Amino acid sequence: MSFEQFLLLAGAHLLAVVSPGPDFAVVSRHAIAFGRRCARFVAFGVGCGILVHMAYTWAGVALLLKTHHWLEVSFSVVAAAYLLYMAWGALRSSQGMALSAEQGDAPDALLSFRRGFLTNALNPKATLFFLALFGSVLNTSPSGWQMLGISAYLAFATGLWFVLLGWLLTAGPLGRFLAVKGYWIDRILGVFLVALAARLIYGLFW
Known about the structure:
mainly alpha, cell membrane, Threonine/homoserine/homoserine lactone efflux protein, LeuE-type
């Protein structure tokens, strides 16, 4: 894997995790209702959930890159279509992120972690996103150490972002801004996804 490919993966991943979605919602609700400590354990769970998707993604990409060319072309077309589908929804976004509070007593650390982990790990869209993203960026099968390194980075970066989010939501006006203007993050992500899909299609013919 080249450094350019890593930057593409890291950039797309950053925009995806910043964009409002299920992970954002579960962390924000716990931060607002129960405070930073609870949100921190939820964020750790979300980060670890990424590793589940990485296992499926690496297995799929490795199989794809070692099989027949027609299968690779077919997958590339499907992946590009999925990226464009996600981009269309993101570009049409016109609402912010509704931030609501959880009800009841504050969950303990283990329950908070489990909520974050299951929210991410059981989200099938995340698996499809990573599979399409990696299929569009990689043209050779990475080594085992590269797979481990990238997986660790994505899990760490995801957890770090959501820890930071939990802190910001309890320390300043970011929550109010995202509640009103969060759709701009979606739109930026949409442009990036269109560029990735175009790159994927371009690679099929040139």
